[in-house]
Model the fold of this input.
Amino acid sequence: MKATQKDFGSLARRAANECSVFYFCGPDEAGASAAAQTIISMLDDPGERMEMAGATLRKDPILLGDEARAGSLFGDSKHIVVRASGDEALDAVGNHLLGTGDACPVLIVATSATDKSRTAKLLEKRDDALVAMFWPPDLGSVAGSVRTMADTAGLQLNGDIAERIARGAGLDVRLAQSEIEKIALYLDASPESPRNVDVAVLDAIGAKTEDDGFMPVVNAVLSGETNKLQAELVRVRELAINPVGLLLAFERRAAQLASLSAKIGPRGDINGVIQSEKRARRIFWKDERDLSVQLRRWRGKKLDRLLSKLLEMHRALLSNSQSADLLLSQGLTEIARAAAPRR
Done:
């Protein structure tokens, strides 16, 4: 079974009922992760969540099948979420499919992979598997998702408010969902007792726009502006910006660079593609200069290494939250130095 972000919503319920292996891929890692969470929420009994890394499965391709058929630590049901890069989990998935006996649901979120990857090809024609491909969304689609989230949470908001939340989340649906949950809690809203959301509400809870929070440090690091880095890291600490949330903004921008780079090709017209995307409202006018610089800093294998580095940092932050600030600062410093122009 195959899907894209356009038809995933209509297929999700059926896939949750009929499939046991789910493969979410494409340059929009945020959308892929959100889709995985949607499927988990639709499982009859998701039970315990078990996280596995693609790098681990590449070294031990038998492990996935063994864990999927083993009982939960607490004796209840469970599901497995694999975060992989490219085809890291290919052999593990193949071995898992050859196994016998009941297995728990396996959900794979694969960065740097598409529906043309070998893992996707292995799964796409199976009735018990879903392959879903996600491209970076535009402002309109994320704003639409925000309004859907708001309806579910008992919030009433207009298109301008939805767009502001979408922009503030850097077009990351996971961050937008978190913002909606925060607003609903602040207003004590529910579907049975809906509340109206206006600009005053957003200001009252301190909902940041991307310029206020994430994007200055994202642009300084990915543009290689090492002279700005220390001040930006200090600002991140002073504003108590969540490390994982900030890293998601980096992942979001890196996925956007990957998507644009694919359209440009090895010797294409960077400025021409940026202007085309701006006219299509897939990028903001104020991002034009930064994207132009960053597309020249991160191309080909260097961009692939950036995506892998961000995935590695994400895993490190989730597994060692007490040292998240330090790990983030070290990782961003390495990336900024790699992006800095050679003297």
Notes: The chain has a mean pLDDT of 87. The chain has 17 helices and eight strands.
